[in-house]
Structure formats: structure tokens, C-alpha cells
Amino acid sequence: MLRDWSPHVTVAAVAEREGRFLLVEERVDGRLVLNQPAGHWEAGETLVDAVHRETWEEAAWRFTPDALVGIYRWIHPQSNATYLRFAFCGSVFDHDPDRPLDEEIHRSLWMSAAELRGVRHRLRSPQVLATVDDYLRGKRYPLDCIRNLAVPEILSHDGSCAN
Fold it and tell me: How far apart are CA 108 and CA 49, in angstroms?
């Protein structure tokens, strides 16, 4: 039995324009790798909030998700860490080329799926291409399949049920 196991929950933005996908080139463990604008889900955010924020911070594009492409589990072969990625597709607008990007991000760029397949060895994880392939296959789930539930009014402040 695994103790203290907690997966890294991440979000990713899949944005396509004219057959090309928005990516970021980032430095990870001394290597420049390619990824969708993506990052960790932070406390107090919805998953949609997180994908908005990550796309802005990493690529300087505003992102509006239209659908969930899929949920991807990946176990990092060296660290054995589990990543659970929620990948959203949508559109980008309001690019700010002068906005400073997150520290580890080298640049944002647009690449076709064929170009991505040709540089498979440079992808941050297999989740990058799996997400693009699922997007191209037309996989889409409505955003309302993700429900954000508030603490029910019937709970008292100490967490017990109120009558």
C-alpha cells in the first residue's frame, strides 16, 4: 500500500490555429523540452481557472476553453511521480508579446502535429502528443462534466450535519 501518495494534478491548453498548435519551450532538468502551456492546479482555483492562468503565464495568450479533451495519467519513469493532466481545447486571443513569461519558459511557438511527431524525443512527456492525437481524433467532453461543488449549506461550521 502506498502511503502519502498524492498525484500532481495539472492542466494543459490545446490551442490550434491553421493546423498548428501552441506550445512552449521550457527548461526542465537542464534540457529544453516542448509542452503545451501547462502547470499545476493551485488551491482555490477551478480547473478552468488554472488553465486560463497557466496559458497566460507561460505563453502570454489568453485562453478560452471550449471542451475537455481528456484526463491523462502518467508516471514519470525516473521520479516515479504520478501526473494527472486535465487537457482542455479552446481558442487563444489577446496575445501580449512583451509580457515576461514564467522563469523556466524559453519561448512560445506554434507547431503542426507532424512537426511534433518529428521531435518526439524533445517532448516533456508522452502526454503532449497523446493530447494532440486525441484532439485530432475529435475527442471532446463538455466542460460541465467537471462539477465544482461548494460546501453544502446543511453543514455546520464544525463539519457536522445540521438539521
Answer: 20
